[in-house]
Amino acid sequence: MSGGCQAVVSAGCSGVAAAGAPAAAHSDSGPTRKPAALIWFRNDLRLADHEPLHSAAADLQHCLSQGQSPLLLPFYCLDERELAPRAGELPQEGGLDIPQLGPHRLRLLLEACASLRAALRRLGSDLLAAQGRPEALVGRLVALAAAAGSSSMALHHHMSPDAASADLEDAVAAAFEAAAARHGLPCSVHRYWGCTLYHPDDLPFHLWACGSASSGGRPGAAAVAGPAAEQQQQQRGQCSRVNPAAAEAGLLGPLPTDLASVYSAAGGAATAALACWEALGAVRCAALAPACSGRHDARSALPFGMGEEQAVQRLRYYLGLEESDGHSVRSVDQEAPIATYRETRMQPFGVDSSAKLSAFLSLGCLSPRTAHAEVARLAVLEQQQQQQQRRRRGQASSGDAAATAAVAAAAGEAAAAWREPQAGDTWRWLLMHLAIRDFFVFTAVKEGDALEAPGGIRGRAVEWRRDDELFRRWAQGQTGLPFVDACMRELGATGFMSNRGRQNELCLDWRLGLRYFESCLADHEWALNAGNWAYCAGTGSDPRDRRFKTVSQGERYDPEARLIQAWVPQLAALRPAQLAHQPWAAPPAALAAAGVRLGCEPQAATAEAGTERQEQQKQQQLGGWYPLPVVDPASQIGKGPKQKQAARPREQRQQQPQPQK
Ligand SMILES: Cc1cc2nc3c(=O)[nH]c(=O)nc-3n(C[C@H](O)[C@H](O)[C@H](O)COP(=O)(O)OP(=O)(O)OC[C@H]3O[C@@H](n4cnc5c(N)ncnc54)[C@H](O)[C@@H]3O)c2cc1C
Fold first, then answer.
1. 150 assigned to a ligand binding site
2. At a CB cut-off of 8 Å and minimum separation 6, what does 272 contact?
3. Beta-bridge mates of residue 196
4. Is pLDDT above 60 for 18?
5. Among 100, 108, 358, which residue has the most ligand 1 atoms within 8 Å of its CB, making it the best to mutate?
6. CA triplet 380, 383, 386: central angle to 5 degrees?
7. How far apart are CA 309 and CA 116, in angstroms?
8. Cα(499) to centroid of ligand 1, in Å?
């Protein structure tokens, strides 16, 4: 960092303004002073457990108490570079010039920004929003604050674990410093860590190599969940009013809701990338619900609006918690989904089979620590219930209520501390997955770009296969492997795919899949996507072969073929339903009864492409043409006791279908 600025990387909850204040000549003391704080919102679109906001607000609160009139400028910048393809690091891109930020995630992002803006407005503040480059926007904001008479500038933001983000953060800081210097304003930059359950300072090793962009010492350690998060929640009413000049600068206009218009506003590269995305996945952006419309594909596993409130609602619903008179109580209506989480999590179908928190976490509408705090509440309630039961059975003395509650609270908090889950546990399995998320984030920070190298962090010497036509069929859900196709069609139409589904691939260059997922996943996080792809490809930190037998996976985790019925209507009428996993092995009579015809649709029929509406109707009709598998299906069937080949008539077993080209 240069100029009069001082970078401060804060990890604790203590105020940091003093640390960033430069020379005494620029002191902010005195009634005429007007310090300004910019809060750069990124993938942390929430108010609770938001250390940059909390710290800035605490500093400004201090200024207010001294009779000064500080400014708080929370802002979000939709970085246009993300709407275009990544710089082509893959050879023979094969139609992969798709946006990094695809329409599904864009929709949720716009919704999350709208929710955040509404929440800030309720506090008398606002969210300044623009499309462009953050490093250009900070310059404008500094000018705005300077014109409003600001006497000093501070920039607060969360750090991102993405490999590319360190450069962006440095560029934004440099632009901020340069703009402040132009206006003769002292300034400081404050970076925070807030995207994991555990804080890097609490790890038993150093995450950052010395001299990296993010190093510089990380004072203090944030508590994992618990009181810190709650305390911050209570203090969030501290934002001061945003400068009205921001409205004039066009930063308070309505957020876009039409997805395609966002790409076209970003220029030719983004528009072309969107067209490429539509062609590759055979999904039309115009057919997707606009942001904030409240509309969803009826089959979507993510039928939620996006925002902090929705995130907490979803989490509480899943845990079976309700708010009553400001306290968490257990919902009495029905058994909460968390009760069966361990058993259902791998099921690829349904809204409640797994927690469906990933999109909220990826946009930062929910912090992992807040999730942990809610789980701790559940643990306390469980302890209270157990104590009551013991008392009823006369196994515990009936002391005074307050003392009993305190004991239960302590026991609950202790119970929510980390321990490996056992078979009978419920919420502990959820905590374990949040810990797995941390593992991938920290691995990504440590390994950086190396995670995406062809041989990964283990430098495996593998000649990855490229087959653009096969890749296209995979992306469009036309492989002839029904479970894979159902997963891919769900991804294209809704941006979600279950964890099981995400682990099915066709032994092609894994980095193609990585890029396609990046563009399609509504919950995309670079660290998690790259780390998990590397895991599946055997190039990550786990050297074991993780290749799935895709047919067996479907049969095992979706025995009733509900996912296939939802997304592959051609096979939906097959009975018994299990036949949908291996239609090539179904008796001819069953195929005929369900109207299924295997193979390529004859040219004459495809040539008669109808209107869009007719095409949609055709998509929803049961029965019809369904392709034969693009790979030998026998290679996708496991031999283990739980992965038995579906029963099929003897005569059919003789005729293995030939892979279709
Ligand atoms: C190839 C591949 C790519 C993936 N890309 C992403 C991605 O971009 N973003 C993303 O959030 N998840 C990713 N995952 C992980 C996982 O599939 C999703 O987090 C999960 O399916 C989301 O559903 P859920 O919220 O119901 O998760 P649950 O299964 O209920 O788990 C709860 C939370 O734990 C975390 N979690 C669970 N499994 C994993 C995992 N394997 N790795 C990291 N965190 C995990 C997530 O935050 C999740 O929301 C990927 C997995 C694979 C195999």
1. no
2. 97
3. none
4. no
5. 358
6. 155
7. 9
8. 6
User: Which residues are registered as beta bridge partners of 128?
Assistant: 75
Cα–Cα dist 238/62, whole Å: 10
- 571: alpha, beta or left, given left = phi > 0 and alpha = psi -120 to 50? alpha
- For residue 460, give both structure tokens: 């495996």
Q: Which two tokens stand for residue 225?
A: 């969940």
Structure-token pair, residue 187: 């300034």
Q: Which amino acid is at 117?
A: R
Minimum-distance ligand 1 atom for the alpha carbon of 521: 8
pLDDT tens-digit readout, 610-659: 566 666 666 667 789 999 999 998 988 887 655 444 434 333 434 445 54
SS3 of residue 532 by DSSP: helix
Task: State ipTM.
Answer: 0.99
The answer to the question of whether 519 is labelled as a binding residue is no
Q: What is the DSSP letter of 305?
A: -
Q: Which residues pair with 190 in a beta bridge?
A: 8, 156
Residue 357: CB within 6 Å of ligand 1? yes
**528, amino acid identity:** L
- The first and second tokens of residue 562, run together, are 């509900």
Q: Quickly tell me which residue has 């009864």 as its tokens.
A: 593
> For the CA atoms of the chain, what is the radius of gyration?
27
In angstroms, the CA 180 to CA 151 distance is 10
Cα(96)–Cα(45) distance, rounded to whole angstroms?
A: 29
Q: What is the mean pLDDT of residues 362-386?
A: 91
Structure tokens at 9: 């990387």
Strands 321-324 and 327-330: antiparallel
Distance of CA 344 from the midpoint of ligand 1 (Å): 15
Whether the Cβ atoms of residue 586 and residue 574 lie closer than 8 Å to each other: yes
CA distances from 499 to 270, 348, 362, 503, 605 (A): 29, 7, 15, 7, 36
Tokens 């682990």 locate to: 503
In 3-state terms, the chain is what percent helix, strand and coil (to 5)?
A: 50, 10, 45
Domains of the chain plus CATH, in order, are: 5-19+33-83+125-255 (3.40.50.620), 256-290 (no CATH), 554-654 (no CATH)
Cβ neighbours, 10 Å, residue 394? 8
pLDDT tops 60 at residue 238 = no
Of ligand 1's listed atoms, the one at least distance from the Cα of 498 is: 21
Three-class SS of 341-358:
HHHHCCCCCCCCCCCCCH
**3-state SS assignment for residue 448:** helix
DSSP secondary structure letters along 212-248: STT-S---S---SSTHHHHHHHHGGGGPPPPPTHHHH
Model pTM score: 0.88
Q: Report d(CA 77, CA 492) in Å as an integer.
A: 26
Distance CA 62, CA 39 (A): 17
CA 93 to centroid of ligand 1, rounded, Å:
26
Residues in CB range of 406: below 8 A, 6 or more apart: none
Q: How confident is the model at residue 252 (pLDDT cuts 50, 70, 90)?
A: very high
Q: How far is the CA of 159 from the centre of ligand 1 (A)?
A: 21
CA distances 423 to 83, 340, 342, 346, 557, Å, are 44, 11, 8, 15, 19
